[in-house]
């Protein structure tokens, strides 16, 4: 070892959204990490800008969602315009751009640089993670028998100096988030596979001066002069994506003249006027739908984001899927590094995310075809102005594609939904869920939000907010109607079992500062809250600390805020008055659903993946 | 003039909530001000902690509400406990502590020091206002003929040094927010008048270790051993107010022993256990309900907060009424200093706030009597556990007392509600409102919030959020159903009148950085938003700027977010499909309600108070 060698748990290559999300997990869980990036600083303008509801939920789970949400511009309307025979363009459909109720957030736009800044601010508030700009990797070697098997040589350009500084990072794991031209991927001998479509687009951000009336709505415009997508942004910015003829694209590749793009937009929007004021970013690109079929090697090096999937920016998914990749990976890495989980759980990263990436590419293909395909003339009455296919595709954008309803299949981290699903799985016969106990909750899907009230003071509470991203698992006990004494007895018995000597839950420490791999229990009941006495509830739901008193923030009443009747959470999840238990992973995905008596199944499931219990 | 003389527009004595609110207005409007305080720094612990909904609205109007709201603890339940004949205490009523719908915020608690810090952070982000700690006033002289008539001698203690530094501040106005023992008030020869009740209380903040089940609810407990009020706070803190016997109070005045207070609380809560962990503040006080009948002198020096009214902390109103005092005064001072309004408007400060202070004292008296008076034994069936009088008082706490429904009477800043009310007023015959056009809106009361949608992109918007505290007046044009062509014509004509040469609205500059005294116009219509074309609306509601494009943020559709029908704003305000215009003061209070054709009445009203138009 020389002076120039640094040992860390994780080295992350690339400080874009995927790399910073990985770094955020490491910071939050106290894992040491270094993020390197060849750029001198974060993204300054342009690039990605769409933020899906699921991404907001993820940001919120680290406490960095507020600021992003406050500055972002929600896109609520989607306006479709078509050419008309008589010339010019005409508004066809005006659709909702989101499905209310699927999330407490909705799709919004904010420049990638600002998202990155939020991650950087978060990371900066912890000591375990640092970012090294102006730095690129030069050599990667894996020594499996070492404590730090990953050896990455790096080169840092010093600002103002011509020479480079070479040094070495030794790490337990490497995460390659270095984009479509990933050095890490290439070095592993992997590559992106797939098609480059013959589609060329230009994009620019500006403050538009226009009398086009829908300029603050998301628009898809299909004019004879070409296709245009309008994405209203934060402040007064608007992004225009405009389709280019191959020869125009070729010329712009030689010399990017934003005015050419502005002129095409003006032509498409005609007879409406259009000028671009404060033009702050412009670029051109060709649509390539490509996938790297392997996301990891040696169970030591993992790829994420554009390094494993590239596609068009049509649906604003890029930044989201990339963030969601490392959101899936980060807690698993932390759990293994902290000795809380077996390394085999890392294999679920590819199992879970490859399917998502494949679906994304198929979805993107339909999206590109829907937007670029010719539609019927909107001036012809009796015909819808967009195809059913595009309409369905747009609908999908707001559900599975955005991550809201994305389902991770059965694995060591997600129980099968029923006995027959379990039989189809290879490996040891682990427990299956009793999915029917929460009929509207899907195993493997992220836990949807419902509003409940804190039992202690009736404060409204988003249940998703107890699922903060700390590396902890949560056992959500839906107690049902505990004003019924038989039901209350079941909850009491469950409470006793949880604190029994030798119980897996008992081995966790509610007051430990290191939360990775711990299990927190919460109770949500649907009895009228005035009929429930806090002090008569099982102690596991109200742990006592000698200096901090009781923990009053683990019991919730599923009641109306100002009434006394039942609230909506049990109904939303399809849970009856007999209740159920739901085990939620550290990334908010549902791992198991069972009856109040099914604790042993949960133990079996957790013992299979956890170490040190 | 010596080197030690500083000229500012406003000198503020006292950096508590009232003084900092005044300083916040000055910072926001670009008026130069200095705030002096004899303390070495802001409040560190204890003191006031109740924040009413109206105060949140005010903080939010400066953009500092989010942070306070996020950290505060909403008090939703109010639990009443009484002694029972068989010994111990028993829960009587469990009431709602707020009226949902009256505000988008609700009552919450947060330590005074944190509120002050939010104000200080805001002020710190501007250059025109500074805070000078360790500084007290020593002499006050008024020279009416000078440009800076107020001469205040001050003395600053340098930290670490024994000697004092004397200097002089010359200002146009002085605001005395220096508390119950106000030096400014005494120097003006004014005094607090009223009674000291024979009520003595102790108060402390701690993390309670207790099995008392309602510890996280606001409680009023009437035990044989004494009376106790419990106020749950941010984090795990809880405040206890406990009634003291005169002899106990006298002893504690000599030497404040918090353990004595804790013991009394333990006795009152018996048979429940009680220990105070992390006791962070304790104090004792006697209830004194006093009022200074004059709030200003020479129309140059103004008093606010505890300097003019003291009362019990029972209803958590102190900090709120103090903040609301200077919220009322600040924009008036800024308007006069900037030459936008005649100095006579300053006289409305006392007219408007004296009545509020008198009501507060009467309310506080009922509150103290209700809480300290004996109630019937709650174990006797058929009797309510609290008196109707206390119940009514608690109800009032959430409406007029909190500022939500406080009404400022007719004056040069509030039009009379009808012709007969106008006749009763002295002075020139200025216009009166047509209150019936907005049947549920009260003239002189703060403009209540309703949610509408931005016309341009359907984004949900709290109408109150357009009423930011910038010193601007707002003309809210409720256009009614403009899908009706006759109604649209009325709105068009109003739009033309607003931009007519010589119109009072035309004399204001939408792009001027200095917003004090400007008038902003907004349109809220209740036609289905898809039937309304933005570009066909009057230009005054969509001003165009050559580099920033159209202003899309002045037109709102009163629609359901995901439907197309009418929303709730027109209904909430009692406005029909024929619409009306509402003129709102810079402090969000309604000044005038009229028909779409009543512009000349508004002009007459404004010309009477404004200068330079």
Low-confidence stretches of chain A: 375-384
Class by helix and strand content of chain A?
A: alpha+beta
Quick one: biggest sheet of chain A? 8 strands, mixed
| Individual helix count of chain A | 14
Oligomeric state of the chains in view: homodimer
**How does the overall form of chain A come out from the CA principal axes?**
globular
Query: What is the radius of gyration of chain A?
Result: 26 Å
Please indicate the percent range of residues of chain A in DSSP E strands (runs of 2 or more): 25-35%
- Briefly note the CATH topology name of the domain at 5-72 and 107-192 and 290-360 in chain A: FAD/NAD(P)-binding domain
- Alpha-carbon distance between the two ends of chain A: 35 Å
CATH class of the domain at 5-72 and 107-192 and 290-360 in chain A: Alpha Beta
Q: What is the helical fraction of chain A, as a range of percent?
A: 25-40%
- Mean pLDDT of chain A, nearest integer? 90
Gross CATH architecture of the domain at 5-72 and 107-192 and 290-360 in chain A = 3-Layer(bba) Sandwich
Largest interface: A-B, 39 and 39 residues
In total, the number of strands of chain A is 28
CATH H-level homologous superfamily name of the domain at 5-72 and 107-192 and 290-360 in chain A? FAD/NAD(P)-binding domain
InterPro entries (chains A, B): FAD-bd (IPR002938), FAD/NAD-bd_sf (IPR036188), Phe_hydrox_C_dim_dom (IPR012941), PHOX_C_sf (IPR038220), RIFMO-like (IPR050641), Thioredoxin-like_sf (IPR036249)
Domain Phenol hydroxylase-like C-terminal dimerisation (chains A, B): 407-611
Family (chains A, B): Belongs to the PheA/TfdB FAD monooxygenase family.
Keywords (chains A, B): FAD, Flavoprotein, Oxidoreductase
């Amino acid at each position: 070892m020389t002076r120039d060698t640094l040992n860390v748990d994780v080295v992350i290559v690339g400080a874009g959204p995927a790399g910073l999300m990985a770094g955020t997990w490491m910071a939050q869980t106290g894992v040491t990490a270094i993020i390197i990036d060849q750029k001198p600083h974060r993204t300054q303008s342009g690039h990605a800008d769409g933020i899906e509801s699921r991404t907001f939920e993820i940001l919120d789970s680290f406490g960095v969602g507020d600021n992003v949400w406050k500055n972002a511009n929600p896109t609520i309307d989607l306006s479709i315009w078509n050419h008309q025979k008589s010339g010019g363009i005409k508004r066809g459909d005006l659709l909702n751009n989101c499905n209310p109720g699927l999330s407490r957030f909705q799709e919004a736009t904010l420049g990638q640089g600002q998202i990155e800044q939020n991650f950087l601010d978060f990371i900066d508030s912890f000591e375990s993670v640092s970012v090294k700009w102006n730095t690129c990797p030069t050599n990667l070697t894996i020594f499996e028998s070492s404590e730090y098997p990953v050896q990455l040589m790096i080169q840092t350009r010093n600002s103002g100096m011509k020479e480079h500084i070479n040094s070495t990072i030794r790490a337990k794991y490497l995460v390659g988030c270095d984009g479509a031209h990933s050095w890490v991927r290439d070095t592993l001998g992997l590559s992106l596979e797939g098609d480059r479509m013959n589609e060329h687009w230009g994009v620019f951000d500006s403050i538009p001066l226009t009398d086009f009336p829908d300029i603050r709505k998301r628009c898809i415009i299909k004019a004879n002069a070409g296709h245009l997508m309008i994405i209203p942004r934060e402040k007064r910015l608007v992004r225009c994506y405009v389709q280019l003829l191959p020869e125009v694209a070729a010329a712009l590749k030689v010399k990017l003249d934003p005015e050419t793009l502005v002129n095409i937009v003006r032509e498409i929007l005609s007879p409406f006027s259009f000028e671009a004021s404060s033009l702050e970013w412009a670029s051109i690109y060709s649509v390539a739908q490509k996938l790297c079929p392997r996301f990891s090697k040696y169970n030591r090096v993992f790829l994420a984001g554009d390094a494993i999937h590239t596609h068009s920016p049509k649906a604003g998914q890029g930044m989201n899927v990339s963030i969601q990749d490392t959101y899936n990976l980060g807690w698993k890495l932390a759990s293994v590094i902290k000795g809380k989980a077996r390394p085999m759980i890392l294999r679920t990263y590819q199992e879970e995310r490859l399917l998502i990436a494949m679906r994304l590419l198929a979805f993107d293909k339909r999206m590109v075809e829907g937007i670029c395909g010719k539609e019927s003339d909107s001036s012809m009455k009796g015909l819808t102005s967009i195809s059913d296919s595009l309409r369905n595709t747009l609908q999908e954008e707001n559900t599975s594609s955005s991550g809201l309803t994305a389902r991770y299949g059965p694995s060591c981290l997600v129980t099968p939904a029923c006995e027959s699903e379990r039989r189809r799985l290879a490996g040891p016969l682990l427990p299956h869920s009793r999915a029917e106990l929460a009929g509207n909750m899907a195993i493997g899907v992220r836990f949807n939000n419902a509003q409940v009230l804190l039992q202690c003071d009736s404060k409204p509470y988003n249940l998703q907010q107890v699922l903060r991203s700390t590396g902890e698992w949560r056992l959500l006990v839906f107690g049902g109607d505990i004003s019924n004494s038989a039901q209350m007895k079941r909850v009491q018995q469950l409470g006793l079992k949880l604190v029994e000597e030798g119980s897996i839950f008992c081995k966790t420490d509610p007051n430990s500062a290191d939360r990775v791999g711990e299990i927190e229990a919460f109770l949500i009941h649907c009895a009228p809250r005035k009929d429930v006495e806090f002090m008569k509830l099982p102690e596991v739901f109200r742990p006592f600390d000698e200096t901090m008193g009781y923990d009053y923030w683990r019991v919730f009443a599923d009641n109306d805020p100002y009434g006394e009747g039942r609230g909506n959470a049990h109904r939303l999840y399809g849970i009856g008055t007999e209740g159920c238990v739901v085990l939620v992973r550290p990334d908010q995905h549902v791992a198991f659903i069972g009856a109040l008596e099914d604790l042993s199944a949960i133990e079996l499931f957790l013992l299979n993946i956890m170490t040190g219990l």
